[in-house]
Amino acid sequence: MQWYFVAVLLTILTSSQGILTTLSQSNGKYLYDYATVPFLAEVFKLLLSTLLLWRECRISPSTRVTTEWKSVRLYVIPSIIYLIHNNVQFATLTYVDTSTYQIMGNLKIVTTAILFRLFLRRRLSNLQWMAIVLLAVGTTTSQVKGCGEASCDSLFAAPIQGYMLGVLSACLSALAGVYTEFLMKKNNDSLYWQNVQLYTFGSIFNMARLVLDDYRGGYENGSWWQRLFNGYSITTWMVVLNLGSTGLLVSWLMKYADNIVKVYSTSLAMLLTMVLSVYLFNLKPTLQLLLGTIICMMSLHMYFAPPNMLVDLPTQVRAAPESLKEVAVERRTDS
Amino acid sequence: MQWYFVAVLLTILTSSQGILTTLSQSNGKYLYDYATVPFLAEVFKLLLSTLLLWRECRISPSTRVTTEWKSVRLYVIPSIIYLIHNNVQFATLTYVDTSTYQIMGNLKIVTTAILFRLFLRRRLSNLQWMAIVLLAVGTTTSQVKGCGEASCDSLFAAPIQGYMLGVLSACLSALAGVYTEFLMKKNNDSLYWQNVQLYTFGSIFNMARLVLDDYRGGYENGSWWQRLFNGYSITTWMVVLNLGSTGLLVSWLMKYADNIVKVYSTSLAMLLTMVLSVYLFNLKPTLQLLLGTIICMMSLHMYFAPPNMLVDLPTQVRAAPESLKEVAVERRTDS
């Protein structure tokens, strides 16, 4: 399976995630407890991965499976990071409004690339760094509040703690992704075995979260397992399965591609959702959405296109002698 | 004189043009007839160029000066194009509002590059084409009307003729620039001699315009030469000299650099003016101004940086075998 097919599929499913979630509402409200969705998605991923692992072990006896606790215990770390991240997210939202929070969320594109370089030691060319910044700029541009919007709080008016927490949130998001990629690429274990470890801890943490919510709520709504499927429609199940599927695709990309591919997939998904919302939910098409889309497309091309396709300078060379050397060697293509 | 010094100077002077023009107003009104300013600027450029030509001929007897009418008559063409352009501009503004017009004005960045390629046969790499589009996107982004602006007409709501005229206006703007570059580079004539021809026709056309304005106004305000300097303050003279100076710099760039350099200078000047206006005129700093500035800076780097500085891929090569060939030849620089 080529990584770009998986990336495109992730883009489509991430986009449909937002749309399905909106469709699963009734009159703008959730008839079900939304907190149960991530838990069921983890369970779904765990069950499916277990099944696929079992099948793989039967077919191919040489399937690598590292079961030493020293290695297995590392798979709890992403769940811990996500836990801290969720709490930081919550704290940030006490200082800034949701649109400011959404705009700050674009920083995780840049923090992911920085940790990609620092932690995984993957080097990017200057052009690729510019592409990363442009991706963040492009997504932010599409989110700029236009003329005539109802509420108009200034982006720059929140307390400084809000911005600091926003940056921290972006760093934690990046850390979780980068650490997961580190785990998946650490050895040649079966992808499904790695998933099983990851999602076992994920399910435990999500379950603990539901238990904690019950405890804090004073068991008003009964225990979580009693109301687990309350208000679930077909659409809600689709939300669960969709969320689980995107998680599995991300896992695959972490092992066979990298975090930058994932970041591009999810960022373009955000744009795709906005474009589809113009047709599905009568969102007003804006100039900034068009501009943001153009910028992100450029960024995609700048990052992934082979260099010789970008900078093939035909016969007229304007710059320093070094580039003359390149022109002599590169295969000339007529533009 | 290196072209980048001239380009930076042009950026500064173009930016100060807008600021000086605003400063020359009294309570938002012009105490002088603004239509006299371009005319006096042409005369200033003509006088200065004549002086510099005379000086050059004295110092260097081998100064090339083509005086055949066959060649001289071509220098009227830019003035004709500008005349048509002004009329199209006027017609466009009967269909669209000024902010839509300003945004469509950014198209001339792209049309200039297209005519640069088609008419002057100057080839650009794919990356440079992307840089051009990003420059137009960046300037447009900075002009996106934000939340809380007073008037909120939709960008997409004008009649189709408005957009067609806007595109035509951008094409004419580009044609004028590209034809001027063609003239300046056609032969090795003295720059000042070429300027003298250009500005003689320019002065004549501007004078004709003033005469026509008088005629249409029924000579209510007397003849133009009677009210030429009415209401002129020091600041107004600075506006005239500034406008003349930018014209001379553009002329130099047309001969010793090219239209793309000029386009970058004037686009960045627009951003510089907006940034300065935040401090000078209390313009509200917006997210779109920040985003637009980042995009234009990236564009500048992408267009002008030597390719090997952009795509130096260090030891880990991700792409097709062709790039391996490049890495072997390129001078490795540590990022």
Automatic annotation (TrEMBL), chains A, B:
| Coiled coil segments of this chain | none
- State the compartments where it is located: Membrane
- Signal sequence interval, chain numbering: 1-18
A Pfam family annotated for this chain is Nuc_sug_transp
Which stretches are transmembrane? 34-54, 74-95, 101-120, 127-144, 156-179, 232-254, 261-281, 287-305
Q: Which GO terms describe its molecular function?
A: pyrimidine nucleotide-sugar transmembrane transporter activity; sialic acid transmembrane transporter activity
Any Gene Ontology biological process: sialic acid transport
Instruction: Indicate whether RNA-binding appears among the record's keywords.
Output: no
Which UniProt keywords are present, listed alphabetically?
Membrane, Signal, Transmembrane, Transmembrane helix
Topological type in the membrane: Multi-pass membrane protein
Quick one: a GO cellular component term?
Golgi membrane
PANTHER family (alphabetical): NUCLEOTIDE-SUGAR TRANSMEMBRANE TRANSPORTER
Q: Which family does it belong to?
A: Belongs to the nucleotide-sugar transporter family. CMP-Sialate:CMP antiporter (TC 2.A.7.12) subfamily.
Annotated protein name in UniProt: CMP-sialic acid transporter 1
